[in-house]
Amino acid sequence: MTRWKRLTLSLATLAACSAASTAWAQATPQLNRLEKATVRVFACRSLSLERIEREGQEVYLAVPEVGHGSGLMVTDDGLILTARHVVQEVTGLAVKLPLAREAIPAVVVYEDPTLDFAFIKVQGTFTDHVPLPREGSIKTLVTRDKLFSIGYPLDPSASTPTTQEGIVSRVTEEGLLQTSAALNPGHSGGPAFVDSGGQSHLIGIAVARHRLGEGMGLIVPIGPAVQAYNHDIVPRNLVATALERYQRDPRLWETMRRYSIVVAEMTEAFHDQSNPAFWFQMPRSGPNGVPAFLRELESLAVDSMLPEAQLLVSGYLWNLFVATRDETALRACIEIVAHLRENNPDVFARSTFAQGLMHVVEAVGAMSETGPTTTGSLEPDTMSCGNVGVGCCSGRYCIEGLRCIDHICVMPQPCNDDQPCPGGQICRRGTCDAAPPFPLFRLGVAAGMAIDDHANAPSAVDGGGGGVIGLFQPLRLGHRTPWAFALIAGAELSVGAWRQAVTFSGLVDLGVRFLIGSPRVAAVMTLLYTPGVIIAEGRTSGVYLAYRAMLGVQLGRFEIGVSWRESGRTADSTFRALELVASWGIR
Description:
Layout: H1 3-11, H2 15-21, H3 33-36, E1 38-54, E2 57-73, E3 79-82, H4 84-87, E4 92-96, E5 104-111, E6 118-122, E7 146-151, E8 162-171, E9 177-179, E10 191-196, E11 199-209, E12 217-221, H5 222-233, H6 238-248, H7 250-269, H8 292-302, H9 307-324, H10 327-343, H11 345-350, H12 352-363, E13 367-368, E14 371-372, E15 403-405, E16 408-410, E17 425-428, E18 431-434, E19 441-451, E20 461-477, E21 483-498, E22 501-517, E23 521-529, E24 532-536, E25 539-544, E26 546-555, E27 558-570, E28 573-586
Helix pairs in contact: 1-7, 6-7, 7-9, 8-9, 8-10, 9-10, 10-12
């Protein structure tokens, strides 16, 4: 058993299953020619963060964007036909032959601009392959023809392919074949055949399950791939072009070979990444307190690996630390990311995960002039207030470079029109940020002075008072954008003095409210129509009409502002009041 097999079993926590499997002797699977030519394709794109809730606390896990599909070896020198979406925009690509343990590095040779198929290339000589049909001899299909599709659905660790049978249901408007064969994730890129005259004829590759229901799949017909091979790949010598840079520098191919192994092994290990419990089942320690596979991961990532591979492994080590608080995993993760920052600044700059981790490390004093070290023990409390993945400090404070969103410090994620932010966040200056606070209710107090307009008044100020305000914001628009708007209904009860008389007022507030600014500080403008009833000198003055204009600043949920209120208080004068208003928002 190779060290890669041990690594895979450790990562996926399948040691028990492996031990059990030795109790029964199993015959080597018998594969036919078509199955032997059907390979697994592994791809890695980037590293992203996923927020999960664990025992009442929110934590962030690094999720490698890895995936797998299928492909068909079509030449004896390693040209493989697969689905375009499997290999598009990848940073690492690997292939495993049936029953093979070690992955082979692959490069993209051709991607069709309209249909979902592509050609990739691996190095070597391969007896088991299925040649593309000649132009003019492609099998003509009709509805209800029986077909079968071969691939590696669902489980990327399966070493032998699965065959699914179905019929040709119809031809879509895009020219794809719809089939009743049950296709699943992982089937993409796998070949489809029909049997006729005692022979199997290649008729296309699987690309997707049908979006409208289960039990339906889509297949790209083989014709366009044959044309691309004969009229683009061969005459334009695209295979040699794809391999040229690696042939000039054999060391680059060697690092790519090692990276492809990491991509394949990690894809197999991460097949259950959608289940957060997977991470929390990791062993806390092995012999001498250090799991053996951690040492392998560390040496693999730093020893002449491609930067993307280092980033992928560092994400796994971070998850292990989050799940188990294993300091060995954290130290290895820090060392890899620090190595990236020093030697591959471009890769480091594109990774919010790597940047955020270095912010945390520097904040807790875990870096020295000679490189990453640990000052004492990095227990969970040192990775607390203000650091990535944990709670914000008082006042919604996070360390430099992080954002406080939903009371958790997170690394800002890039965003644009095509890459929107998740719910509860907005896209501001190219990165995701918390939406401006716009609570449903506001409760507050108002206090101010009455401005007298009587010609013979001894001073401009003739009284004052205060009251309690309650506002309800039933309609809120734009509260996930840098601006927001709301309709307001509310009430105010106040008491005061005006022209040497005690006054009691009951106001009804109806109006609109605007908010512009950042999540922490926002400018607020409120316009209210405020009819009300007053009682002055023991007499009811009746209903009067009034308006109120408020300008203020909102700091989180707290708001303070200045209000100008004017009303026809009596028959011969207008009541004006300048007030200071403070309120608190309730969601």
